[in-house]
Amino acid sequence: MGNSTEVTEFLLVGLTGDPGLRAPFFVIFLLIYLGTLAGNLGVAGLILLDPRLHAPMYFLLGNLSLVDFGYSSAVTQVVAGFLTSDKTISYRACATQFFLVAFITAESLLLASMAYDRYAAVCRPLHYTSTMTANTCASLAIGSHACGFLNSALHTGNIFRLSFCGPNVVDHFFCDAPPLLALSCSDSHVSELVIFFVVGFNDLFAILVILVSYLFIFLTILKMRSPEGRQKAFSTCASHLTAVSIFYGSGIFMYLQPSSSHSMGTDKVASVFYTMVVPMLNPLVYSLRNREVRSAFKKAVGKVKSSIGPIF
What we know:
By secondary structure, the protein is mostly helical. It has helices spanning 19-49, 56-73, 77-81, 91-102, 105-123, 128-131, 134-160, 177-183, 189-222, 227-255, 264-288, 291-308; strands at 9-12, 88-90, 169-170. The termini are far apart.
């Protein structure tokens, strides 16, 4: 890989070249990242520390929060880029950043696992504890992380085996597949096909699990006699499916199209959604609307206040 590559660093164009937008963009994206950091690490911490949240759904949610924090942190260079004129990134750092962002596959599989968990809870409540055992939950989480790692390794090797002999200007705010393929001096046709089929298979598999799970959930909800119960369940499903739609919609739009049809400006907006906005929204969609998580949060805040109180 290194012998066939002449480029030793890349220049990231970023989101905007307008100096007047740098300050407001810096504030906006810094707040987004801080919200992502606080939300996801806070959720993971609550789940770890509160025994009431030691349940399959929250175990998967905790893993989702850690994945969100991990791959969203890989693109924090976009925040720093608004304050500095140096937008260069070394070849190895670019490959590392690409690897971390490609780990997003683990999120899609965790979303599918959470949908299956909800199916088991709503459609088979009497068998829930025997279905979602500790071993099952661990297998779902480990499998999701393992597939994410393999996906990252595959795509990183697939992209960075190509030759980059100049120019080195990446028309994006992080190292991603479409702009890197556009810079390659090699024939990227095979690499594009690999991305298309691997991403397509992963996404279609996860989407199929989610849709089938929620189809059975909806059918079960329709059989419920209580209007209040149906409304509450439908509301929960709608929130989950909205977040899933944003996540998959932006990802599919980004990757499942030929490189010749890519508009980098539109791709940047889609990338902002799935690398920064979605990780920030997930704690809100999956946690803050949940009564048990809110109760655990209030309890934690109460403990902090009681421990700080005597000091002051």
